[in-house]
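[retry 2/3] Cobalt ABC transporter permease: previous attempt timed out, resubmitting with same input.
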Amino acid sequence: MIRLIDSLSYSNRLRGMSPMWKCGFAAALFILSYGSHPPVQAAIFAWMIVWVVRYARIPLKAHMVMLGTACLFFIASVPALLIEIQPGSAVAPGSSMFVLWSRPYGSVYITETGLHTAETLFMRAAACLSAVSFIMFTTPVAELFQVMKRLRFPALVLELMLITYRFLFILTETAHDLYTAQRARGGHNGFRGRLNDTAMLIVRLFAKTMHRYKGLSHGLVSRGFTEEIRLAPYRAGTVPARYRLESGIGVAILLLLECWLRWRGIV
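[retry 2/3] Cobalt ABC transporter permease: success.
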């Protein structure tokens, strides 16, 4: 998935636009998504799909797969938000929507408050993820580092992020090579065989990855690495007037909608 995102970030229709403007636009929507009401968050989610799929020409399937993969972490936390356990057979009146399990010594049920909390958090997570996905699919990582450098991020932080990003590619490439080698030797046949081969792959993956990472370090030293990774100079691209106008009007409408919801006292 990381290779697909990296490839699409270089080939999308919004590639030539100013990375600083794209980061500022996404940051504004991210902040608005975090503190707004669910209707505004739903509007941001839908609007970001238009920007990513229609304007940037990113395949809808790739966009949905990325969002769905990120939502798996939210799904893992849903049971803790929804399910309540109460000792005894009596359930507080009006506090449960659906009793899952009831015995004289305890009850398990879903509360209305928990369901509302899960819905609110899901909309917030979806809206924030859509804003982040706009940056991921339209701006290469190299340009993101240039933007962070212009924003005065510490050099050590940028170097650690750059090395970690490179390490992810080494990790995925090594895992793919090991899996291909196992399949070529007749591995991953049957449930038990898959478990054994996967365990062997995980054990060897760390050693292989660290060996290749050490080779990367030696390569940097042999090329004159002086404890400072220099980034390419920042290049400010142009932003078409149509996109500037649409983004400004869209953010203004979202702010007005949020103010109206707060004025009406809608939660």
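[retry 2/3] Cobalt ABC transporter permease: The CA atoms of residues 91 and 107 lie 7 Å apart.
[retry 2/3] clearing retry counter.
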